Amino acid sequence: MNIVVCVKYVPDAQSDRSFKADNTTDREAVDGLLSELDEYAVEAALALNEAGDGGEVTVLTMGPEDAADAIKKGLQMGADKGVHVLDDAIAGSDAVASSLVLAEAIKKLGEIDLVITGLASTDAAMSVVPAMLAERLGLPQVTFASELTVEGGTARIRRDGDTASETIEASLPAVVSVTDQINEPRYPSFKGIMAAKKKPVETWGLGDLGVDASQVGLDAAWTKVESVEQRPPRSKGEVVTDEGEGGKALAEFLASRKFV
Amino acid sequence: MAEVLVLVDHVDGTVRKTTAELLTAAARLGEPSAVFVGTGFETAKDALAQYGAAKVYRVEDPAVTDHLVAPTAEVLAQLVGQASPAAVLLPSSAEGKEIAARLAIKTESGLVTDATDVQPGEGGGVKTVQSVFAGSYTVTTSVTKGSPIVTVKPNSIPVQEAAGAAADESVTVALSDLATAAKIVDRKEKAASGRPQLTEAAIVVSGGRGTGGDFGPVEQFADSLGAAVGASRAAVDAGWYPHSSQVGQTGVQVSPQLYVAAGISGAIQHRAGMQTSKTIVAVNKDPEAPIFELVDFGVVGDLFQVLPQATTEVQARKG
Ligand SMILES: Cc1cc2nc3c(=O)[nH]c(=O)nc-3n(C[C@H](O)[C@H](O)[C@H](O)COP(=O)(O)OP(=O)(O)OC[C@H]3O[C@@H](n4cnc5c(N)ncnc54)[C@H](O)[C@@H]3O)c2cc1C
Ligand SMILES: Nc1ncnc2c1ncn2[C@@H]1O[C@H](COP(=O)(O)O)[C@@H](O)[C@H]1O
User: Fold this and answer.
1) pTM (predicted TM-score)
2) Angstrom distance (rounded) from CA B148 to CA B141
3) How distant, in Å, are the alpha carbons of A4, B122, B146 from that of B108?
4) Count of helix runs (H) and strand runs (E) in chain A
5) Cβ contacts of residue B308 below 8 Å, gap of 6+?
6) Which residues are within 8 A (CB) of B22 and not within 5 positions of it... i.e. 6 or more apart?
7) Which of A92, A113, B39, B142 has most Cβ atoms within 10 angstroms of its Cβ?
8) Could you read off the pLDDT of A134-173 as tens digits, one per residue?
9) Which tens digit of pLDDT belongs to each residue from A29-84?
10) B129-168, pLDDT tens digit by residue?
11) B94-107 and B69-83 helices cross at what angle (nearest 10)?
12) H or E segment and range at residue B142
């Protein structure tokens, strides 16, 4: 199958993430990486083609210069080619604009069977881009897959909700998002790292996609961040060491706060 | 006064607490209209009236309920076209967010997800508050484009009763072929635990790798407090507790009055799901565990000693 995997380059969650003066996420101050949750999407695509009749896996990212790293990681894991949508006008885009750019890039890639995304980006964590892509591409959406199989032109997933576990089917082409329950992403092998250097990566600008600069970026956003405030760190409360009475102390605390 | 649409979250007509929260928030922005999709309207009606729904748009077409999010988004888009609401409020569940996402594109409206507060904007529109980067920042956003679409986190809005007429308006929908392209072919209801729903519980007690697989003390302590039980990913990955109970970035995000972490170290991904809890308590053997940086009260000790003693003490106090 021809599979497009959307991968996002995000600030490392382990570092101190922050905002810039224009209230957009500061993507320069901290090291970035391929959003960990998108590794599951890459793995799912590779596994499908390895188990099936093969085909091409394309990793697609929209992001700044450094986002090329996210593509590189995907190629090292085993994807066949990469597409990087890079344009100064894109900076500050919200999910609505991001989904427009990604949808146009997917259309430009031509005949595809599946679009696979992660569960959520680890920075914005909205989990809305996959649904928006489905809406814009006019494709069925099967999201939050904790299992994914494809047979006879139908994608089937299992989705675990809080009240039920559902099996959902859709005909291809479709947009699928996968959770971190679906697989164990592989580490790039030495061979994979060497091979990635020779794999094709195309860089597209908005002009290549027929998207007008006025449709994207901070000024085009349908929402406006008014203010960003760092929450005062939680002041550390009392910590006692259990010397036989710890449970009682705990109950005492809960009673003092009226939980008992 | 302009209408404000609220998508009702319910199981066969039993309305979830989030719906009361959304109706309360809606009343700040205009006149709340509930949108009820599925069966059980008669059961739901009183609860919707109790929290101020002036109108209830009722959609019972099985084509909508058997097909995931796309048809509900079409229904809401149709209603947005008819009513030009001041805002559309949905629960911040996986489904709520996806419906909201599609609706935003369809109606060219601004979207905010995971809001912890919703107020009228100064110059019209809607102002929202969100908590981002694992709770370390608070972001205020205004939405002015279209009919602002906001998904609201459970447990964020204090519920207020307000009598509403809940006037019944049956809606017929014309769905596109695309809306029914993804179909639910099988559904296995989870066995009810008898405990409160994780996202709406006032108290959550979670266990981690430190339980070594024995959730008994965690469950007993939870039951003494009438709490829901959660788990860290380490405990879920080990197969000790179901994934639907996982608290964190890739599980559920909870915001209870009280969160108790037992045998959980407090990794950033776990914090992302519980850091907005009002009061945080931890029990952990390791005094250096990062979870202690967040706590209002902590006990350094063995959870197998501390929790049973606390359970007995809580039960004794409750008498
Ligand atoms: C992409 C990604 C997504 C993730 N999403 C999530 C998520 O949604 N939720 C989540 O929780 N994690 C998530 N994680 C995993 C997270 O990074 C941690 O690995 C996980 O939270 C650790 O779980 P734990 O605290 O139970 O285990 P550990 O980190 O092993 O901590 C166990 C703790 O128990 C204590 N302990 C041991 N025995 C006892 C005892 N008898 N009494 C008291 N204390 C004891 C130890 O001192 C230790 O602090 C994610 C990771 C990644 C990479
Ligand atoms: N800029 C981007 N480039 C490529 N893929 C993206 C981008 N933003 C979001 N995605 C994809 O959409 C998923 C959900 O993102 P989000 O809606 O931001 O939580 C991610 O896991 C990615 O697969």
Assistant:
1) 0.91
2) 11
3) 26, 21, 6
4) 7, 14
5) A247, B217, B220, B221
6) B6, B7, B89, B90, B91, B152, B157
7) B142
8) 999 999 999 999 999 999 999 999 998 777 889 999 999 9
9) 677 888 889 999 999 999 999 998 899 999 999 999 999 999 999 999 999 999 99
10) 998 876 778 899 999 889 999 999 998 999 999 999 999 9
11) 50
12) strand B137-143
Nearest-by-Cβ selection for B244 from A125, A160, A241? A160
Q: Where are the alpha helices (DSSP H) in chain B?
A: 17-29, 41-50, 62-65, 69-83, 94-107, 216-225, 233-237, 268-271, 303-318
CA-B250 nearest atom, ligand 1: 8
Task: For ligand 1, say whether the CB of B303 is within 6 Å of any of its atoms.
Answer: yes
The token pair that represents B236 in the structure block: 């879920």
Amino acid B58 reads R
Alpha carbon distance, N-terminus to C-terminus of chain A: 58
Residues 6+ apart with CB under 8 A from A16: A30
Q: Flag whether residue A24 sits within 8 Å of chain B, measured between CB atoms.
A: no
Residues 231-260 of B with CB under 8 A from A: 242-244, 249-250, 252, 257-258
pLDDT in tens, A2-13: 999 999 998 776
Phi first, then psi, for residue A122 (nearest 5°) are -80, -5
- Tell me which chain B residues have a C-beta less than 8 angstroms from the C-beta of A12: none
